[in-house]
Amino acid sequence: MVPSVSVLSRREAEEITGEALRVLETVGVFFEDKGVERIALEGGGRLKDGRVLIPEDVVKEALRTAPRRIRLYDRDGREVAVLGEGARIFNPGSAAIRILDHGSQTPRNPTLEDLKKLVIVADYLKGLKAQSTALVPFEVPAEVKDAVRLYVVLKYSGKPVVTGAFTVENLPLMVEMLGAVREDYAEKPFAIFDVCPTPPLSWSTVTSRNLVDLARLGVPAEIISMPGLGATSPVTVYGAIIQHHAEVLSGIALSQLVKPGAPVIYGGSPTMIHPYYGTPSITAPEAVLISLAYRDLARYLDLPSHTYMGLSDSKTVDYQAGAETAYTAALAALAGFDVISGAGMLEYESVQSLEKLVLDNEACLIAERLARGVEVDPQALDALKEGVLEKKGNFLALRHTRQHYRSEILVPKVWDLAPRAKSTGVPLAELAHREVERILAEHKPPLLDGDALRRLDAVYSKLWESHGLKPVPPP
Fold it and tell me: Which family does this protein fall into (predicted)?
């Protein structure tokens, strides 16, 4: 008995797919990089006014060869989940450029040490099944920021990682890092790379060449379309859904032209552009509706799916942050997304908070419990009879209760559920801060060591040398 959330019927998903295919055939896609444009043209596309028109049969062939399922592993080669079956892999939101300290109202630039701490906290939290390269350390030169972030995650956690490259040159080196940790990274992937088309219907040099390289190297690519209602896409939810679908389909087509069977994940991070401030609200109901609709489109195509939900647009860890995070996390889980990025995030995906990460872990666990639904209990009638007739209503005394309590009941660890008489009265944000400090003091993450660490360190040195830079000592 499993609850679910859906927006589109199969017929409606088919109709929207038809509309998106017509967009690709008539409006087409702009590729900034001429080499990538050439791949699309040689694969059957047609150039018109600087845009590549992609025929329907090219997209349909790409959908035929794209893998329906992707097995995701941890750093040590143990299977974590099968993407494409509603895996619900919650992970911290990626690439925040600032961090909010406890007690502060103003975020600051994050450091490598901040990233290390976040990775350790995320490694401990049970509601987060994966890591991400969640912070961009400011003291690291721009040329190597993307790969240095990945190094920290690989060193301090065994969980799978969602990441991405900021440059064309560094992506092969980042994949080389994966190979340094485990040679069979392609057969047993433990990293997913985000690639983002630029709305509306275009691909930059960096993201398109990253997608091409990922396909050639056999690394899962998460195609993150980002329509902004009223600014970079039609203002209607329906129009934005069509654009989103067309952009993701263009990425799937490109990846399969490079290498049929290349692993791809249907993703997104739609926004509502605020009419007064121009800010990109990710938790706006219109943006959430787009996400839920494209989950149905991914299901229609039988492809693994990703979303940015379980996060907040608030500036601080307050009521708005909790409400936005909880409702989007629950919807994402009930919709059955495979990868759900966003935990810990504030302020339009630009800020991370360790305290919010701890609180969001509770929201992720609750969302997961809701999505797990109701398991049939053949002993329920006997337990009911015993509880009423023999124990006089005291179900706590039943063996049945002792046997099933831990598997059936989720008890939040940080949220304050104590009665008023026993409540400490300490604000929830303070309790979360104390939990962060406890985790950092007590949790011993599974550090990479031995030959694997030596190989990773060698790639780390190679990264800096390739840019003619003096290495910052790794944390």
Answer: Belongs to the trimethylamine methyltransferase family.
| Model pLDDT, residue 1 | 86
Q: Which residue has the tokens 């433990």?
A: 190
Is residue 424 pLDDT above 90, yes or no? no
- Whether 249 is covered by a domain: the verdict is yes
pLDDT in tens, 218-242: 999 999 999 999 999 999 999 999 9
Residue 29's SS3 state is: strand
Return d(Cα 134, Cα 138) in angstroms, integer: 13
The backbone region for 346, taken as left when phi is positive above 0, alpha when psi lies in -120 to 50, beta otherwise, is beta
Q: How far is CA 16 from the centre of its chain?
A: 24
CA distance 333 to 340: 8
Is residue 475 scored above 90 in pLDDT? no
Establish if 75 belongs to a structural domain: yes
Q: How far is CA 200 from CA 23, 271, 290, 295, 316, in A?
A: 11, 13, 15, 20, 31
Closest CA to 313 of 354, 290, 346, 339: 346
DSSP secondary structure, 131-191, as one string: EE--B--TTS-GGGHHHHHHHHHHHH--S-EEE--SSTTHHHHHHHHHHHH-TTTTTS--E
Structure tokens at 115: 């990233």
Residue 409, both tokens: 């009941």
Looking at the domain assignment, is residue 257 inside a domain? yes
Residue 77 belongs to domain with CATH number: 3.20.20.480
The DSSP code for 103 is T
| 10 Ramachandran zone, left/alpha/beta (phi>0; psi -120 to 50) | alpha
| Backbone φ, ψ for residue 47 (5° rounding) | -85, 130
DSSP codes of every residue in 259-310: STT--EEEEE--EEE-TTT--EESSSHHHHHHHHHHHHHHHHHT--BEEE-S
Cβ contact 302:52 at 8 Å? no
The parent domain of residue 360 ranges over: 64-372
- In this prediction, residue 41 has a pLDDT band, given cuts at 50, 70 and 90, of very high
User: What digits encode the pLDDT tens for the residues 47-69?
Assistant: 999 999 999 999 999 999 999 99
Chain segment 319-356, per-residue pLDDT in tens: 999 999 999 999 999 999 999 999 999 999 999 999 99
The answer to whether residue 459 sits within a structural domain is: no
Q: What's the domain count of the chain?
A: 1
